[in-house]
TrEMBL record, chain A:
Role this protein plays: Catalyzes the rearrangement of 1-deoxy-D-xylulose 5-phosphate (DXP) to produce the thiazole phosphate moiety of thiamine. Sulfur is provided by the thiocarboxylate moiety of the carrier protein ThiS. In vitro, sulfur can be provided by H(2)S.
Pathway involvement of the protein, from the record: Cofactor biosynthesis; thiamine diphosphate biosynthesis
Gene name of the record: thiG
Keywords, sorted A to Z: Cytoplasm, Schiff base, Thiamine biosynthesis, Transferase
Protein's recorded name: Thiazole synthase
EC number, UniProt record: 2.8.1.10
Domain of life: Bacteria
InterPro entries: Aldolase_TIM, Thiazole_synthase_ThiG, ThiG
Disordered: region residues: 1-27
The keyword Transferase appears for this protein: yes
Organism field: Geodermatophilus aquaeductus
Cell compartments where the protein resides: Cytoplasm
UniProt similarity note: Belongs to the ThiG family.
Organism taxonomic ancestry: Bacteria, Bacillati, Actinomycetota, Actinomycetes, Geodermatophilales
Main subcellular location of this protein, as a coarse class: cytoplasm
Positions annotated to bind 1-deoxy-D-xylulose 5-phosphate: 198, 224-225, 246-247
UniProtKB/TrEMBL annotation, chain B:
Sections of the chain in a coiled coil: none
Protein name: Sulfur carrier protein ThiS
Superkingdom to which the source organism belongs: Bacteria
CDD domains: Ubl_ThiS
Organism of origin: Geodermatophilus aquaeductus
Pfam families for the chain: ThiS (PF02597)
Length: 296, 66
């Protein structure tokens, strides 16, 4: 069987490095290219006023090496990558940013680790200064063990940041009511967790995610908890507009291969959502007609 | 003067500016943000912003993160 990663490998490690977004069908299996092209033409992903062709957002946390990061970013086809700010002694080398700049992706600073609205707002302002973007992945967690969002601090921070002109992508629980409150506060996207960050437990409450999708008009991005490709496909089948994941790729045995799996899962899930699944039935429904069945 | 940089005591020249501190601590990084006593110091003000004894300064740079 042909190795679907082969073209990505040669691009990532051999040939000249250039912005990878000109042709995202390049190097994909032949039979996937037409479906992708059709999807891109009629189904753009609009987030914060910007149009994306990829519906996969990639976090860089947990990445084992710069080589793995570069290969995963390229294989994923992502156009939006999250980054964090830390004290300079604990920060990554500047080469990480060079890898991301080469890949031509847009950067999305986060407020990871913040536990109060005050910390998150200050971190967002620092991210705006460092990265030159007013986009922020707003994350306000309630405790270290679950890393679950603190709803009260989150909404407070979202209101302040929207007032300061930020494009706020809010990491939140799968509560549809809180999601609506965040959207009403002016968030550009609501990003419910599937399960706790880094847990790989997938989507624990698909019903809530679907309800949340119905409750808001802004994009819904499934963020956190994805473990494997079927989780990402399910998110899209539930109606999510995109998926944000990090650990599932960066901590996979083969990050590059998993990045391609996620890309195809997101695309497959989106196509299935647009195509319209058949209803679930209790009993079988024959696909071959009984009419003209011979008596044997 | 004595002040706190990234959570640790530091000794800097009495006329040190934010720009001096960034040059000393974050050479090689081109995406740096500085908070002085919790407030962002915009890059455009680094050269003009003198530090003061007792300041708590954070010098931050990008890292991997979800």
């Amino acid at each position: 069987m042909k190795d679907p990663l082969a073209p990505h490998r040669s691009q990532a490690r051999g040939g000249p490095l250039h912005g990878g977004q000109e042709d995202r069908t390049e190097g994909l299996p032949q039979d996937l290219a037409p479906a992708l092209a059709a999807e891109e033409a009629g189904d753009p992903f609009v987030l914060g006023g910007e149009t994306f062709t990829s519906r996969l957002l990639l976090g860089t946390g947990g990445v084992p090496s710069l080589e793995a990061l570069e290969a995963a970013v390229r294989a994923s086809g992502t156009q939006l990558v999250t980054v964090a700010l830390r004290r300079v002694e604990a920060s990554a080398t500047s080469s990480m940013m060079q890898v991301l700049d080469r890949a031509g992706v847009r950067l999305l600073p986060n407020t990871a680790g913040c536990m109060t609205a005050r910390e998150a707002v200050r971190t967002a302002r620092l991210g705006r200064e460092a990265f030159g973007t007013d986009w922020v992945k707003l994350e306000v967690i309630g405790d270290d063990r679950t890393l679950l969002p603190d709803a009260v601090e989150l909404l407070d921070a979202a209101e302040q940041l929207v007032a300061e002109g930020f494009t706020v992508l809010a990491y939140t629980t799968d509560d549809p009511v809180l999601g609506r409150r965040l959207a009403d506060a002016g968030c550009a996207a609501v990003m419910p967790l599937g399960s706790p960050i880094g847990s790989g437990l997938g989507i624990r409450n698909p019903h809530n995610v679907a309800l949340l999708r119905e409750a808001v008009e802004v994009p819904v991005v499934l963020d956190a908890g994805i473990g494997t490709a079927s989780d990402a496909a399910l998110a899209m089948e539930l109606g999510c507009d995109a998926v944000l994941l990090a650990s599932a790729v960066t901590r996979a045995r083969d990050p590059e291969r998993m990045a391609l799996a996620m890309r195809q899962a997101v695309e497959g899930g989106r196509l299935a959502k647009l195509a319209g699944r058949i209803p679930r039935r209790w009993h079988a429904e024959a696909s071959t007609s009984f009419e003209g069945l011979p008596a044997l | 003067m004595e002040l706190t940089v990234n959570g640790a005591p530091a000794e800097l020249a009495d006329d040190a500016t934010v720009a001096d501190l960034v040059a000393a601590r974050a050479a090689g990084h081109d995406r740096v943000a500085v908070a002085r006593n919790g407030d962002v110091v915009p890059r455009s003000s680094w050269t003009a912003t003198r530090l003061a004894p007792g300041d708590a300064v954070e010098v931050l740079a990008p890292t991997a993160g979800g």
